[in-house]
Design brief:
Elements (H helix, E strand, L loop, with lengths): L24 H21 L4 H5 L8 H37 L3
Helix pairs in contact: 1-3
Length: 102
């Protein structure tokens, strides 16, 4: 392909190329996939990717998309609480160990 015709490619994900009957669930699935991957990456890498979650907050157009997003948000919140508790108990254990010899 020579690059001049790249704009002629059909992409059903672009709004201009969507047929009138384009299902509302496909964009929701893409957004869900994005926040699910962000959630998994946070857990695996120990990073906080809040901007991915902020970018989809309040933008769900289907009840199903909203309920799945809420499930991901709940699991993320639970993981964050567990990490905070583990960090807190680790700090307390270290402090207790340093006071043992006193």
């Amino acid at each position: 392909m020579d690059g001049k015709n790249c704009t002629l490619l059909y992409c059903p994900l672009l709004p201009a190329h969507r047929p009138p009957h384009f299902p509302l669930c496909l964009p929701a699935c893409l957004q869900l996939e994005m926040i699910l991957q962000a959630h998994e990456y946070e857990g695996a890498q120990g990073k906080v990717l809040q901007e991915f979650f902020d970018s989809t907050a309040g933008k769900w157009r289907t009840d199903l998309g909203q309920s799945w997003a809420e499930e991901i948000y709940a699991r993320r919140s639970q993981r964050q609480q567990q990490q905070q508790q583990a960090a807190g108990s680790g700090d307390g254990a270290a402090a207790a160990e340093s006071n043992v010899g006193r």
